[in-house]
# Entry
Amino acid sequence: MSDQPTVERNADTAPGSAAFSPLYQQIKALLLQGLDRGEWKPGEAIPSELELAARFQVSQGTVRKAIDELAAENLLLRRQGKGTFVATHHEAKVRFRFLRLTPDDAHSAVTGSRILDCRRMRAPADIAALLELRTGDTVVNVRRLLSFDESPTILDDIWLPGASFKGLTVELLAGNRSPLYALFESEFGVSMVRADEKIRAVAASETQAELLEIPVGHPLLHVERVSFTYGDRPMEVRRGTYLTERFHYRNSLN
Amino acid sequence: MSDQPTVERNADTAPGSAAFSPLYQQIKALLLQGLDRGEWKPGEAIPSELELAARFQVSQGTVRKAIDELAAENLLLRRQGKGTFVATHHEAKVRFRFLRLTPDDAHSAVTGSRILDCRRMRAPADIAALLELRTGDTVVNVRRLLSFDESPTILDDIWLPGASFKGLTVELLAGNRSPLYALFESEFGVSMVRADEKIRAVAASETQAELLEIPVGHPLLHVERVSFTYGDRPMEVRRGTYLTERFHYRNSLN
DNA sequence: CAGTGGTCTAGACCACGTG
DNA sequence: ACGTGGTCTAGACCACTGC
# Structure
């Protein structure tokens, strides 16, 4: 506990001065840094509010407000009586935030994953741009086919920055039974925290048609997702193609 | 100001008793009732925190927490130095929460709306179920075609409970220049607050193809939306069909 | 300058989980 | 019985808006 971070109390900021940051925002930033550094791992508890208040030399209420915001953003999870925990993809709750395809009738689907491909290569220009890399930087490309109740439903084309995902192989993926993001967390220390998606309807190409066992030209839902870790750093581009005859993409507008 | 609502202070609730509601949740419920009753209209300011605290006989902090939650749900809008306002669809910000189709290149699209149909009829079973009406209850059905830059892009099939939308006519719709939800607010006192959507890819039918000027079978994004007012009461079913060649549906996973 | 929401504090007490 | 987060209060002061 050697760190006594510098929190600026804005005592002298001129009224109407440009930069002004509330104390709790600074605490929030410090907590974010801790999460990013891996000081507290996914699933673990962070120190109690009182402990953090003591460490940062602020009141419990200020720490509370910082944690409130991180909890609202789903980075932390409060559990009364137990503590505050780092969110992890090893929980159904988190998982369904990212898995939006849902069966039309709420039956429990048996799911299967088949890895089609996993190779390292130089990033194409569009992928590089989305991942904020340089064209030609190494990336990992994974292609997989997900089935529900034995029928192929999702075709994923996934791109990851090579530097953060050394050692990602077909074998590792094939032996994996949890969601991909859970594996990224456990094996590579990469926590996905947020994602942006662009959705369109497209006609099935020949390869897509063959893999999904549908005619060429069949309408498919196409979802391009960019996922981010702490600090809004893009860490994955995922192009998903969904068959939506018996499934739909659910969304809530608030 | 005759109302001194009964807030239960839970002083005597046995430890571990079933029902227990924090004070601020009760205040929140009271504010929600006020919004629902139309005590404060969209765009108007609600009373100040101190005033509400006095009215409800609680501290400012408790009122604040109630308002915080309503603001987080986008029912209220805080503006420092000015007050707290009832959210309204007459603002670009609110509008884009519900309009998710976005041009691929961020150009400013000229938009046009053509009302195809507007008639009152007996509710089909599926619509009735979604609107929580009885089959055969009166509903209003509106069909319209939205164009961007002169090219038809969105085909909407809209269903509204007849009881709440008396006097909705083609003429009224044709003369309208604002978003539909803004019109619902001003003309019928119905505020849409939240919506659920189910999205799929479908092949264009003959009618759809003709109106959207595309070949039959062309892939289209199909969005079924159910919109809710205060208290989670469904007030609209909207089946939208989108052309996604130059537009996409944007979404954020948090 | 007055009034609004925003921040920060300190302390009391409640509800929950675990030992 | 203890420690955790959750609620509620009261008061001081700050930042923004508009008269």
